[in-house]
Write a structure and sequence with these properties.
The complex is a heterotrimer. Chain A is an alpha/beta fold. Chain A has helices at residues 2-25, 27-47, 66-77, 93-98, 112-117, 133-156, 179-201, 203-210, 212-218, 223-251, 261-285, 289-305, 318-323, 328-342, 350-373; strands at 55-61, 81-86, 104-108, 122-129, 165-172. The model of chain A has no long low-confidence stretch (mean pLDDT 86). Classes of the chains: A alpha/beta, B alpha/beta, C alpha/beta. Chain C: Residues 13-247, 335-564 form the ABC transporter domain.
């Protein structure tokens, strides 16, 4: 028993060693493993943000009273907005928005000061470019909060010691509400997925294409040993790259890591298990490398979109939300954000751990079965 | 065969026809081409059209009232009956905090014990709004909605209790081109750029590399076919395929997702044709340099697909990126196409947007095609 | 317009001082070195040489796909450097793997090449009918090229190159991996075209009997032209150096061949029917042997002699006996197959075949492309489950047996499945560990393999960068590291040059002498002579079984001559009802 186990172990070690040699010896595949993840993290990390700054806006102040000038000064002082022009005629509005020169027009009507003085609500019109609805929503939100703050300050100064109810606003876990804090842990999951898929999804397909897979099957290696031999390199490389990415997130992008590393790496290990399982399953189904690549691609694109990495899963229609349940990235993104930003303890993440373990076990079993039973 | 007519620039209608027919037949019989050209676009469109939304609606929030009373009821009542929030009443802060940590609520509105009492005292009473800042985007929206509700409640309260409050400035919002702020109106047109990059660059790069790998390119080159014929023979079928992808996407956008198409459809197809030329040029260039499917697919993924997704302004706003990244986006053709698509779909034929972007695409198309023609030689070395 | 002086001199290709080098990972390689030659119009010219001699490079230079570094190539009166398109308009080139689009049908492939050659539409139906009739593809016009058998693909490739009635036809290894029947049919078509249209043909091949039949031979070795002459002129240089040695009672062919190959002055030995053929070095007297008889020389003898003979010295010296497990009785069959059937959907690839192989036997599995031998082979190795029937290898079915049973077999596939990016040493290390060899044993066996297969100097080279002959040696070394007592070899000599094939069979002979059981498939019929027994398969059934002698006798009984195994094979295949009507 022990002897046969140690023989099996020797065979697995040989296979793992061979996989690593094959992956790292070739200059091109070495590049594929090292170059893209780092480029992706840097470009993604800097490009992917929902926060806006330097939003170009134009002011159209028809009033000219002191209060309207105070309000205009609030906009001018906001770091988010850049005043690009002051306009005097209605006709000037359209070309500015059409050409995307201004994303926002702040329009103060002629009766503004008079209405306020009479105690009537005075409207300020915010015209936004809706071509990018998300940006429009955020611009509106920024502009409204400037107006609200303006109102609150007026209430405060109204002599009676302020309004009867005032707001105390706080944001937990991300006090400055930086969307980078939200996106970068997700990106770490995304890149880990891409790397492991690339390592595993082509590994069996490549051997089938080159005929070496038959050669493996006639050696004493058992399917389960081949499975382990194929899975371990993906696991080790995934662990290594994820560690580099996590380090970059913490030390380069200054994302706080509040939770314990044990929790984080438990999640990472389970996620790698499921990603490797799916990758090997695709690879065992594919006859050629091209099919393997396309299969991985067809899996990865929806997996990323449905993971909640950029857009909340709760916003998706119910049917789509059910589909996300089989997406391993969905669970890992939650684990990453919770451990990074909230410091969530281990036991609260168990609901995320077991689905990953389940997906991993099922997909690995199917992959192992396909090694021997795939007909072609 | 008249030898005098054979030169590198020559084009024979018969040979070109033969090459194009071959390419079409191969496309029809190759499941992976069909998958990239038709299945993936439809999946992407459905996902983005139905699945992805950045709007915050029906956000679950916790209402914690330490000492319920008439005043608190009127305040919390204003959080109900709004499409933005799904409020959940919780007995104390402890349970609210757990709910937030478990992700069951995104925000907590907390009214303290002395809410009813302090309401009538100078200085008033605070209302605490705590948002889960992890998703900063949602967090900010919740805060915005929350303060709007507060101002409105305050004025109602003042009116009922005859308290004099200074009049406040009211925001009147006008969203041009997309008054309901539907995400899909801007995501679906932008997606067309991604889909056409897939067909134009990724698929073309793969199929040319495949000819090298299978040795058919060698057989092809040993015939009197000219390089121009090979290039046109490859580009024309994928141009048609890309146009097909474009038609499907536009059709789905307009009829399935009700995205308005305010510009001219001919202008749309015109700029799409320009972009397709750029994408095909990139695909041919990659495969000419790589000649190997694995490497070609990796390069195509990194230099065409991911930038089209991330750096084109399709999801993330270019103007918010750091300066260096903004400069890089200028060499991403999808950037110009996304701007054109969003304008043509939602705003209309605005020439001041169309001219510069279309010109940029035309210049890029020219550069890529000249490069491809320069690099492609009818040689094996 | 073609140069009139060349037309007058009858040259179709003129090479003067042609050199061409390539940059590879291991530094520059001189593929062709100062080659001068004139290829004559209207003739069939063979480019013959071992792997890496520069045959494919020469073809590509002639067709204008590559340019020479120095020197000039003139094809059909055009300088390929100046006017490559003119050259390509009047010649046709069939690269290795035939250059077919596998996802197009037979007809669509023909249409494509007709368009590319600008064949007028008016003449097409007639030309198509002619080509289809010639190649026998008429019934398969609507079938995808990828679903054709190897032989049919090769004929379609030929039809596509002939569609424009070229003046010059270049064929790069047109018969590699193709069975003898298809091979013969291909050459019949080519020779008929040459005599009918005066077309010139240049081809390269690893089959020396094909070289024997052509009009002129260019013998290349390591980028240099060793000689240009008619095959008969090459053979005549060998006059008086070739002998037949008939067998002695009670001595096996293999043992006799082995002994003869060790005699001084002997540069080549081959088994031919019931005799051993000997080739002596120049100016060497015939060995002092009984039953020796002079025999006329062949082109093959000249080829081997000019290249210095197969290097079999290392194979013999320092031979370490292969360890054989002696638990089972020697008389019991090692491999037994009965009623073996395999269905793919409705198609029956193997139709209930029976045979058995004894210990220490070299057993051949022969057949045309698509006869079902690969399917049988894969089932025996446990790579494919059988639909019906029984099969045992060393007493077990490898598909269900514990993994330790698989350590008794060695396997070598036709593509020499090695890890291309790994070095020779890394490949050997991996396979020895995969077979569970311990550290010490592993080192010992790798040392043995390096010596035995002369892999020492390429030990650090990536397997992909090895010449084909070395790849084959490495593949075999990897299959033998764990000292298996059963060896499965699937077309182990496909595409390998005659020198490497000779070395290979020397090794197999020695293994068989030591009691290793060998199951081998091959397309080279002369190799069937090395087998103790063989079966010929066709259409999934066994057509004939027995010793090579039995098979030849069986074929001779039909009334046709069957001097060689190839003749016998073709006769037996044609005996089938399907061929009888054709």
């Amino acid at each position: 028993m022990i002897a046969s186990l140690s023989a099996a172990w020797r065979r697995i070690v040989a296979l793992v060693g061979k996989e690593f040699l094959a992956l790292l010896k070739d200059k091109k595949s070495r590049f594929v493993l090292i170059g893209p993840p780092i480029i992706q993290l840097l470009v993604f990390g800097y490009a992917a943000t929902f926060d806006l700054n330097h939003v170009p806006y134009a002011l159209y102040n028809e009033d000219g009273g002191a209060v309207s000038r105070q309000l205009a000064a609030r906009f001018a002082g906001a770091p988010v907005f850049d005043l690009i022009s002051t306009i005097r005629r209605d006709a000037d509005i359209r070309p500015l928005i059409d050409d995307r020169q201004a994303r926002l027009i702040v329009h103060i009507s002629p009766q503004f000061s008079r209405d306020l003085a009479l105690g009537k609500p005075a409207p300020v019109q915010l015209i936004v470019d809706g071509r990018n609805s998300n940006s429009a929503l955020i611009v509106l939100n920024y502009a409204s909060s400037i107006v609200q703050q303006f109102n609150a300050d007026r209430l405060q100064r109204s002599g009676m010691g302020g309004p009867p109810v005032h707001l105390e606003v706080r944001a937990w876990f991300n006090p400055n509400l930086q969307s980078r804090w939200f996106l970068i842990p997700g990106i770490a999951g995304l890149i880990t997925l891409i790397v492991t898929m690339l390592v595993t999804a082509l590994s069996v397909a490549r051997e089938r294409e080159q005929g070496t897979f038959d050669q493996l099957l006639v050696t004493p290696l058992r399917p389960v040993e081949i499975l382990l031999g194929k899975a371990l390199p993906g696991f080790i490389i995934g662990m290594f790259e994820a560690t580099v990415i996590i380090a970059l997130a913490v030390f380069w992008f200054d994302i706080p890591l509040l939770g314990s590393l044990v929790t984080l790496y438990t999640g990472l290990a389970l996620f790698l298990l499921s990603a490797i399982g799916v990758g090997l399953m695709i690879s065992s189904l594919a006859v050629t490398q091209q099919q393997g690549f396309l299969g991985a691609f067809l899996f990865m694109v929806p997996a990323v979109i449905l993971s909640g990495f950029a857009t909340p899963i709760e916003n998706m229609p119910e049917a789509v939300q059910y589909i996300t349940l089989i997406d391993p990235l969905r669970y890992f993104v939650v684990i990453l954000r919770d451990v990074f930003l909230e410091g969530t303890p281990f036991h609260l993440l168990i609901p995320q751990f077991w689905p990953l373990a389940l997906i991993g076990t099922i997909s690995l079993s199917i992959a192992g079965w396909l090694f021997r039973h795939r007909m072609y | 065969m008249n030898a005098a007519h054979l030169n590198e620039g020559g084009i024979s209608a018969m040979r070109l026809r033969g090459l194009m027919r071959k390419e079409f037949l191969q496309i029809l019989r190759d499941p992976s081409s069909i998958a990239i050209a038709f299945v993936l676009p439809v999946i992407l469109l459905l996902l983005f059209g139905y699945g992805v939304s950045l709007d915050a609606k029906h956000v679950p929030i916790a209402l914690v009232v330490d000492e319920p009373g008439a005043a608190t009821a009127s305040f919390t009542g204003s959080f109900r009956h709004l499409p933005y929030f799904d409020p959940l009443t919780l007995p104390d802060m402890r349970s609210a905090e757990i709910a937030m940590r478990e992700g069951r609520v995104e925000a907590i509105v907390h009214l303290r014990t002395d809410f009813g009492r302090k309401l009538y005292q100078p200085g008033g009473t605070p209302v605490q709004i705590i948002v889960n800042g992890v998703n900063a985007n949602t967090g900010r929206l919740i805060l915005g909605y929350g303060s709007g509700i507060w101002i409105n409640w305050l004025h109602q309260y003042a009116q009922i209790n005859h308290i004099h409050l200074p009049a406040s400035v009211q925001v009147e919002q006008r969203v041009w081109f997309n008054s309901e702020l539907r995400s899909r109106n801007y995501l679906v047109p932008g997606l067309i750029a991604v889909i056409m990059t897939l067909i134009g660059a990724l698929l073309t790069a793969l199929v040319v590399a495949r000819e090298w790998e299978r040795g058919t390119m060698e057989a092809l080159m040993a015939t009197p076919v000219t390089m121009n014929e090979i290039i046109i023979g490859k580009m024309a079928p994928y141009f048609v395929l890309g146009s097909g992808g474009m038609l499907i996407s536009v059709g789905m956008a307009v009829w399935l997702f009700d995205v308005p198409l305010r510009g001219s459809i001919w202008l749309l197809f015109g700029v799409a044709a320009l972009f397709l030329l750029v994408a095909l040029g990139m695909g041919l260039l990659i495969s000419t340099l790589a000649r190997n499917q694995f490497v070609a697919s990796q390069i195509a993924l990194i230099v065409t697909f991911l930038p089209a997704f991330l750096l084109s302004g399709f999801i993330f706003e270019i103007s918010s990126m750091p300066q260096v990244v903004q400069i890089i986006t200028h060499i991403i053709p999808a950037r110009y196409f996304v701007a054109l698509l969003q304008t043509l779909f939602m705003a209309g034929d605005i020439w001041s947007v169309i001219w510069p972007n279309a010109l940029a695409l035309a210049v890029m198309a020219l550069i890529f095609l000249v490069l491809v023609r320069r690099i492609s030689r009818k040689r094996l070395d | 317009m073609p140069d009139s002086s060349d037309v007058a001199s009858g040259a179709v290709v003129t090479l003067s001082g042609v050199s061409r080098a390539f940059n590879t990972a291991g530094g520059p390689v001189q593929a062709l070195d100062n080659v001068d030659a004139i290829i004559t119009r209207g003739r069939v010219t063979g480019l013959i040489g071992p792997d890496g001699a520069g045959k494919t490079t020469l073809m590509r230079l002639i067709s204008g796909l590559l340019m020479p570094d120095t020197g000039s190539v003139n094809t059909l009166g055009f300088d390929v450097k100046e006017q490559p398109l003119q050259v390509q308009a009047s010649m046709c080139y069939m690269p290795q793997r035939f250059g077919l689009y596998e996802d197009l049908t037979v007809q669509e492939n023909l249409d494509l090449y007709a368009d590319l050659q600008q064949l007028p539409y008016a003449g097409r139906p007639e030309r198509y009918a002619e080509l289809m009739h010639m190649t026998g593809l008429a019934a398969f016009a609507a079938r995808l090229a990828g679903q054709l058998s190897g032989g049919m693909k090769q004929k379609l490739g030929l039809a596509c190159t002939l569609v424009g009635s070229p003046k010059l036809l270049l064929l790069d290894e047109p018969t590699a991996g193709v069975d003898p029947v298809s091979r013969r049919e291909l050459w019949e078509i080519v020779y008929r075209q040459v005599s009918k249209t005066g077309m010139s043909v240049v081809f390269s091949t690893a089959y020396l009997d094909e070289a024997e039949r052509c009009d002129e031979v260019l013998l290349l070795h390591q980028g240099r032209l060793l000689g240009q002459d008619t095959p008969a002129a090459f053979s005549s240089r060998m006059q008086g150096r070739t002998w037949h040695r008939s067998l002695d009672e009670g001595v096996s062919k293999r043992a006799l061949q082995h002994r003869l190959s060790q005699l001084p002055g002997v540069i080549d030995t081959t088994i031919q029917g019931e005799q051993i053929r000997l080739v002596m070095a120049a100016d060497t007297a015939a060995p002092d042997e009984a039953n020796l008889q002079a025999t006329p020389p062949r082109f093959e003898d000249a080829f081997i002699a000019m290249l210095g003979g197969a290097d079999t010295a290392a194979i013999v010296s320092d031979q370490q006996p292969v360890h054989i497990r002696t638990t089972d009785n020697d008389q019991l069959p090692v491999i037994e197959v009965s009623g073996l059937t395999r269905n793919f959907g409705t198609f029956q690839a193997v139709k209930g075949i029976d045979f058995s192989i004894r210990r220490g036997e070299v057993f051949g599995l022969l057949g045309a492309n698509g006869a079902g031998k690969s399917t049988t082979f894969r089932m025996l190795c446990g790579l494919l489950p059988a639909s019906h029937g029984e099969l045992t290898v060393a007493g077990v079915n490898l598909r269900e047996a514990p993994s330790s049973a698989r350590s008794r077999i060695g396997y070598m596939s036709q593509r020499f499945s090695l890890y291309g990016s790994l070095s020779v040493l890394e490949n050997m290390r991996f396979f020895s560990s995969a077979y569970g060899l311990g550290r010490q044993q592993r080192k010992m066996r790798i040392d043995w393999a390096c010596k035995q297969f002369e892999l020492g100097e390429v030990i650090a080279t990536a397997a992909n960068d090895l010449p084909l002959g070395y790849k084959q040696r490495l593949a075999m070394a990897c299959a033998l590291l764990h000292e298996p007592d059963i060896l499965f070899l699937d077309e182990p000599t496909s595409g390998v040059d005659p020198l490497a094939r000779r070395e290979f069979w020397h090794r197999i002979n020695l293994l068989a002498e030591q009691g290793v059981t060998v199951l081998v498939t091959t397309h080279f019929m002369e190799e069937a002579e090395y087998c103790d027994r063989l079966v010929i398969m066709a259409e999934g059934t066994i057509l004939a079984a027995g010793t090579p002698h039995d098979i030849r006798m069986e074929a001779a009984a039909t009334g046709r001559p069957a001097d060689t195994m190839e003749d016998a094979f073709i006769t037996l295949i044609h005996r089938q009802p399907e061929f009888a009507t054709a």
